[in-house]
């Protein structure tokens, strides 16, 4: 039997239907004026640019992106090639090297938290036969930091460690947004959106207070809100989205995606009450997900979210919800 794949919370591939491919990471968030970068800053900016171009880029393309002379960009690229972080192919295209990937994966796999989380994901896969993820919040995106998947399945997820998705369209993202935000204003800020000038939204008073687990910090550090014109993944861009008095909308991934911020806020209130979140085919048709919070062992620190992502025809959403208590137990007792 041929093996089909889906992107975790991102793209679904079944039968002869071609996958709806979405970039797993947003465009690089480097300086708005790349031409002013110098020295090490330019080298790092080039590394970020190449990290978002798996097919590589030519010197001419990179010089245009950096708004700098080819000779200047070439010197920076030479430093990256010399350090073996970037390769220059026979076709003249610069690409992230295998050495860079080796370093990245070695670091990711050696992190203490990742080592603690992996056995949890493995147990979830063994129990439910579906893919499990561990993710953290990064602005208005979620970043997948660990993954476990079943073997021998005809339909699988192709999500990758380090990949990203819009927080509002995923179970892990909505759960982390619920625990991160106290008011509707907080939600607009973390999504990088400007609230309507004449809001007709419900009371936005604090929804979470005190130091109980539902209020714990998501990542342990503050994230600066993106400017109103930001085009990070998950934010609808353009004048219509941000004009005075209008209601900004979020990126629609499927017919089920919540694109209204006030509606998303209502969903987050439900999530805070039940302490789990679901993705009802909101990121991609045919893919459901249920996420629960993951706390650092022995603390009240919310380290991220752990989810079970299931192909809808194999495991309907109601089956996941019926097993939420067991999912919580596995997450709370494994790897402690």
From TrEMBL:
Which controlled-vocabulary keywords does the entry list?
DNA-binding, Transcription, Transcription regulation
InterPro entries given for it? GAF-like_dom_sf (IPR029016), HTH_MetabolicPath_Reg (IPR050707), Tscrpt_reg_IclR_C (IPR014757), Tscrpt_reg_IclR_N (IPR005471), WH-like_DNA-bd_sf (IPR036388), WH_DNA-bd_sf (IPR036390)
User: Which GO molecular function entries does the Swiss-Prot or TrEMBL record give?
Assistant: DNA binding; DNA-binding transcription factor activity
The ranges of region (Disordered) come to 222-252
UniProt record, GO biological process: negative regulation of DNA-templated transcription
PROSITE patterns in UniProt? HTH_ICLR (PS51077), ICLR_ED (PS51078)
Instruction: Supply the SMART domains for this chain.
Output: HTH_ICLR
Residue ranges with Low complexity bias: 222-236
- Residue ranges of every copy of the IclR-ED domain listed in the record: 99-336
Q: Which residues form the HTH iclR-type domain?
A: 37-98
Q: What is this protein called?
A: DNA-binding transcriptional regulator, IclR family
User: What organism does this protein naturally occur in?
Assistant: Actinobaculum suis
């Amino acid at each position: 039997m041929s093996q089909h794949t889906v992107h975790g919370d991102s793209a679904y591939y079944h039968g002869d239907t071609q996958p709806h491919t979405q970039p797993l990471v947003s465009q690089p968030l480097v300086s708005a004026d790349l031409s002013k970068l110098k020295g090490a800053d330019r080298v790092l900016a080039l590394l970020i640019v190449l990290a978002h171009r798996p097919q590589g880029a030519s010197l001419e393309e990179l010089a245009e992106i950096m708004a700098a002379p080819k000779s200047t960009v070439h010197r920076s690229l030479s430093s990256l090639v010399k350090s073996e972080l970037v390769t220059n192919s026979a076709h003249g295209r610069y690409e992230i090297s295998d050495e860079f990937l080796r370093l990245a994966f070695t670091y990711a796999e050696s992190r203490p938290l990742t080592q603690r989380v992996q056995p949890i994901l493995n147990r979830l896969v063994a129990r439910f036969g579906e893919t499990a993820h561990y993710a953290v919040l990064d602005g208005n995106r979620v970043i997948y930091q660990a993954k476990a998947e079943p073997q021998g399945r005809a339909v699988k997820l192709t999500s990758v460690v380090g990949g990203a998705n819009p927080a509002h369209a995923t179970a892990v993202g909505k759960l982390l947004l619920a625990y991160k935000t106290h008011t509707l204003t907080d939600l607009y800020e973390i999504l990088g959106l400007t609230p309507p000038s004449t809001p007709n939204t419900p009371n936005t008073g604090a929804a979470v207070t005190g130091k109980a687990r539902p209020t714990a910090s998501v990542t342990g550090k503050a994230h600066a809100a993106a400017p109103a014109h930001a085009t990070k993944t998950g934010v609808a861009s353009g004048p219509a989205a941000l004009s005075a008095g209008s209601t900004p909308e979020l990126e629609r991934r499927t017919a089920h995606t919540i694109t209204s911020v006030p509606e998303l806020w209502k969903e987050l209130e439900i999530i805070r009450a039940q302490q789990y979140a679901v993705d009802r085919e909101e990121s991609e048709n045919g893919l459901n997900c249920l996420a629960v919070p993951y706390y650092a062992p022995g603390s009240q620190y919310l380290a991220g979210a752990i989810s079970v992502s299931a192909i809808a025809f194999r495991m309907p959403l109601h089956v996941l919800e019926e097993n939420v208590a067991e999912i919580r137990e596995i997450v709370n007792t494994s790897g402690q």
